[in-house]
């Protein structure tokens, strides 16, 4: 297991509940969503939600754009019902070929395949039991010919797969129902949780872990300048202490409550504090900051800015014209603390805030509806007795 994630570029534990790319494609969380995908409590492995592919087939998947010749991913899967045919359920793909995690219906096993949707899968992977979680570590190297897949299931390394294919850059990761290789479109029921992607070969295997969500739970310091109101037209000012409760929608797909900037001012902003992790006592390995926003009435050009604030650096989650009255999503990934460029610390994560506003054009009125940190954490430490005579209630931790 990787103790750190050197080059994280994405993580999601479905805590955000995002199941569309959203109405603004400037910096989406998931790049695209095909078919019917939901975030449900039944599908969770950790946290409150997991992704539920209740009718998974070739057209039902979550997809994230990447750009690298090597990518390492970790995600967890559980089948509620199994496919009737050989089916590719996850991929790290180039523009014309792919590296697949595959279910073989003839042997009821997981496997891997390369090149095309109809390519032969490598036999010999672990058998699948309905209702059981499987943590998948999956690395694809397409930098040279031959391509290579390294993979592991629940920490157990599986046989490497190689194929003679010309070097090409990886362009996306997808999971759910990637390619159905049988006749027709047989359906199956799949749960997915705790997704993380890295572009460092050294991060393989990432190993077990969890992606949890953290939303605002208090106000920071405002510079409101009488420019903001909530969705009930109640004016917010520098003394406001409840702005956080208008930006903590879970999931992030709701349009209300919200906070609107109704008077332009490029120096005007509201600030909220993100809830801390109070249970793990260790730093996250990587994190994704996600936000949701909308226009109140029209879709003509305006401006709005949303920042992550680590108390020394403001990092952009969204900046530009909103352009939609439907829900929009913005996201940015932070493998390290912005102000230091160093690995996250527990204290640094627990001090994170967000600021929003800064609009030079509020026609139409822009509004923020949600903020969330989706952070990837290593497995919780295992308690141990450090002295044979020590009472169990005094057990310390690694």
Summarize the structure in short.
This protein is mostly beta strands and 398 residues long.
Description of the structure:
With 398 residues, the protein is an all-beta fold. It folds into 2 domains: 8-207, Jelly Rolls, CATH 2.60.120.200; 213-377, Jelly Rolls. It is built from 1 helix and 29 strands. It has one helix at residues 346-350, and strands at 8-12, 32-34, 38-40, 50-56, 61-68, 70-81, 87-93, 98-104, 109-115, 134-141, 147-153, 156-157, 161-163, 170-180, 188-198, 210-214, 216-219, 228-230, 235-236, 259-261, 269-274, 286-295, 304-309, 314-320, 328-334, 353-357, 366-377, 383-384, 396-397.
Write the layout of secondary structure elements.
Elements: E1 8-12, E2 32-34, E3 38-40, E4 50-56, E5 61-68, E6 70-81, E7 87-93, E8 98-104, E9 109-115, E10 134-141, E11 147-153, E12 156-157, E13 161-163, E14 170-180, E15 188-198, E16 210-214, E17 216-219, E18 228-230, E19 235-236, E20 259-261, E21 269-274, E22 286-295, E23 304-309, E24 314-320, E25 328-334, H1 346-350, E26 353-357, E27 366-377, E28 383-384, E29 396-397
Antiparallel strand pairs: 1-15, 2-5, 3-4, 4-15, 5-14, 6-10, 6-15, 7-8, 7-14, 8-9, 10-11, 11-12, 11-13, 16-27, 17-21, 18-19, 18-20, 20-27, 21-26, 22-25, 22-27, 23-24, 23-26, 28-29
């Amino acid at each position: 297991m990787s103790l750190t994630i050197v080059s994280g570029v994405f993580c999601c534990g479905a805590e955000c509940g995002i199941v569309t790319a959203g109405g603004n494609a400037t910096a989406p969380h998931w790049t695209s969503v095909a078919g019917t995908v939901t975030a449900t409590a039944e599908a969770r492995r950790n946290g409150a939600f997991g992704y539920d592919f209740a009718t998974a087939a070739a057209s039902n998947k979550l997809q994230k754009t990447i750009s690298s010749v090597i990518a390492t991913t970790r995600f967890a899967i559980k089948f509620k019902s199994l496919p009737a045919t050989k089916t590719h359920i996850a991929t790290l793909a180039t523009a014309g070929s792919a590296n697949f995690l595959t279910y073989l219906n003839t042997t009821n096993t997981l496997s891997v395949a390369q090149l095309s949707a109809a390519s032969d899968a490598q036999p010999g992977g672990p058998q699948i039991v309905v209702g059981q979680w499987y943590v998948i570590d999956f690395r694809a190297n397409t930098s040279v010919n031959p391509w290579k897949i390294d993979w592991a299931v629940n920490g157990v390394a599986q046989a490497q797969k190689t194929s003679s294919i010309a070097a090409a850059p990886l362009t996306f990761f997808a999971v759910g129902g990637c390619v159905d290789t049988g006749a027709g479109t047989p359906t199956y029921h799949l749960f997915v949780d705790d997704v993380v992607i890295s572009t460092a070969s050294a991060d393989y295997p990432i190993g077990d872990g969890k992606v949890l969500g953290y939303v605002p739970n208090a106000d920071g310091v405002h510079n409101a300048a009488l420019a903001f109101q909530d969705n009930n037209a109640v004016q917010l000012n520098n003394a406001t202490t409840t702005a956080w409760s208008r930006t903590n929608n879970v999931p992030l797909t709701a349009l209300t409550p919200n906070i609107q900037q109704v008077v332009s001012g490029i120096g005007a902003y509201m600030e909220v504090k993100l809830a801390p992790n109070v249970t793990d006592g260790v730093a996250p390995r990587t994190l994704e900051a996600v936000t949701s926003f909308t226009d109140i009435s029209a879709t003509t050009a305006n401006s709005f800015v949303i920042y992550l604030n680590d108390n020394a650096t403001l990092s952009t989650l969204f900046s530009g014209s909103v352009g939609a009255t439907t829900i929009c999503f913005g996201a940015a990934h932070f493998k390290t603390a912005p102000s230091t460029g160093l690995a996250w610390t527990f204290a640094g994560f627990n001090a994170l805030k967000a600021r929003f506003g800064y609009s030079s054009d509020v026609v139409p009125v822009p509004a923020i509806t949600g903020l969330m940190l989706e952070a990837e954490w290593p497995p919780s430490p295992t308690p141990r007795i450090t002295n044979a005579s020590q009472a169990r209630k005094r057990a310390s931790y690694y």
